[in-house]
Amino acid sequence: MRGDYTRSGPDFVIEQDWTAYTAEEHALYRRLFERQSKLVPRHACPEWIEAIAGLDCAGGIPDFRDISAKLRKQTGWELVAVPGLIPDEAFFTHLAQRRFPVTVWLRRPEEFDYIAEPDVFHDFFGHVPLLFDGIYADHLHEYGKGGLKAMRLNAVTFLARLYWYTIEFGLVRTKAGVRAYGAGLLSSGGELAYCVEDPRPQRLAFNLERIMRTAYQIDRYQERYFVIDSFEQLLRETAPDFTPIYARVRSIPMEVA
Ligand SMILES: [Fe+2]
């Protein structure tokens, strides 16, 4: 895993050390931001578009403290800086306490189009704006609590598929057509248009148990997306106790992506 983990404690939180970013890094972030900004009006969901407009974060890598101050006021969330990917338990614990972990490092210029691990651009641009939406924010909070429970039930694999097909690669039906709300899509130069416009991938109605039975590929565009009607639906359908659902999903053969 990339990132410097030597400075982090058991919760993996570190100082963002915003003053240490170089001018080149801020410029690279700006170029990523500009490229995606051209794509989002036609492909991103309206909640995300509205939120990013209020953030004033196009000029360079944002200082998480400024964003957290705004976020705390609006939905009670805050950002915490982390060295990179963190273990499930630490990740779920942060979400369950309305803290969103954001990776501090930025990709290299040669990784402009594709990066295997999430960096500050993916985490910030993709995930953070929707934390300003009250319903989405509540959903993610519940997801964190559900994650800790899934660990006890040995069901993280199933819950991770839900995360993948919603929070990372989810689509939502809007008045203007299907739009992306998943962070993996919103931060992708190629897949953001593909997921909305290309005729090849399947766009299936949200189905919790089917999602939990559907494996995913991390190294190519998705062959299927799941489309929610609204964040209310996401919150409502993921609210029940998953214990009996996990038991059912375990007993049915898996769909291979
Ligand atoms: Fe992500």
Radius of gyration: 18 Å
> Which H/E pattern describes the elements?
HHHEHEHHHEEHHEHEHH
Strand percent estimate:
5-15%
Shape designation: globular
Low-confidence stretches: none
User: Could you tell me the number of beta strands?
Assistant: 6
Number of helices: 12
State the separation between the terminal residues, measured CA to CA.
Answer: 25 Å
Identify the bound ligands: fe (ii) ion
Q: Report the major sheet.
A: 4 strands, mixed
What spatial order of strands do you see in the largest sheet? Answer: 4-3-6-5
Q: Which helices and strands appear, and what pairs or packs with what?
A:
Elements: H1 23-43, H2 46-53, H3 64-75, E1 78-82, H4 88-96, E2 99-103, H5 120-127, H6 134-152, H7 156-168, E3 171-174, E4 177-180, H8 183-186, H9 191-197, E5 202-205, H10 208-212, E6 224-228, H11 231-237, H12 243-251
Parallel strand pairs: 1-2, 3-6, 5-6
Antiparallel strand pairs: 3-4
Helix pairs in contact: 4-6, 6-7, 6-11
The protein binds fe (ii) ion (FE2).
Fe (ii) ion binds at residues 118, 122, 126-127, 168, 183-184.
